[in-house]
Amino acid sequence: MTVVAARKTDTEITIAADSMFSYTNLIATPLEIDAVKLFRHNGLIIGASGDSGEINQMRLFSRNHKPVPATPDGVAVFIDEFRSWLKKKDCEAEFSASYLIAFDGKCFRTYTRTYDVFEVPEFAAIGAGEHFAVTALHLGKSAVEAVEAACALNPWCRLPVSFFSMPIAPTSRMGSA
After folding, report:
1. Which fold has domain 3-167?
2. Where exactly are the structural domains of the chain?
3. How distant, in Å, are the alpha carbons of 61, 68, 165 from that of 126?
4. Could you tell me which of 68, 71, 45, 70 has the C-alpha nearest to residue 58?
5. How far apart are CA 145 and CA 148, in angstroms?
6. Nearest C-alpha neighbor of 150 from the set 139, 159, 138
7. Nearest Cα to 2, choosing from 20, 15, 26?
8. Contact yes or no for 49/36 (Cβ under 8 A)
9. Within its chain, how far is the Cα of 128 from the centroid?
10. pLDDT the model gives residue 174
């Protein structure tokens, strides 16, 4: 069980995660959080909820794979490539994780089981504390504050919170003379 929340503003995207690992019911160390449920590399920030084995494989896969282009279809192809890659490694792999993936100034919410991919216009959350986090995000709270709210209200979410942010490049506006 877990909670991961994302907030997109005009200037940055932040993804935050709690410290709960339900397979052990122990509080994760910051290193474990960054290694399993929240990681940053290859121009991506990925927050994940679900099977830790699948998520660890996504961490490895995304080190040298990236969705192209930054569209729902591009992310769906990335998920399909990940599933094919993992099936070659483990033919019995089951897909059940949800991901928040930020790159190129955009954030996407994905489900590997169904290939659903949605662009996040402003905020999103995944995991056991999702409803509490989405409520906090709806009320204008940051991704970190949303995860903190879920931790206060859901027994399957725990402090401390880890987060990564990435800037969004300003879009140039072409004016007429």
Report:
1. Glutamine Phosphoribosylpyrophosphate, subunit 1, domain 1 (3.60.20)
2. 3-167
3. 21, 23, 17
4. 45
5. 5
6. 159
7. 20
8. no
9. 14
10. 52
| Residue 54 near residue 112 (C-beta atoms within 8 A) | yes
Locate 27 and state its tokens.
Answer: 């509080």
Structure-token match 């569209």, residue found? 71
Q: Which residue has the higher pLDDT, 35 or 87?
A: 87
CA dist., res. 8 & res. 14, Å (int) = 7
Looking at this protein, which amino acid is placed at residue 147?
A: V
Across the range 38-66, mean pLDDT stands at 93
DSSP code per residue over 42-76: TTEEEEEES-HHHHHHHHHHTTS---SSSSHHHHH
Q: How far are the Cα atoms of 5, 70, 155, 159 from residue 26, in angstroms, in the given order? A: 20, 36, 12, 11
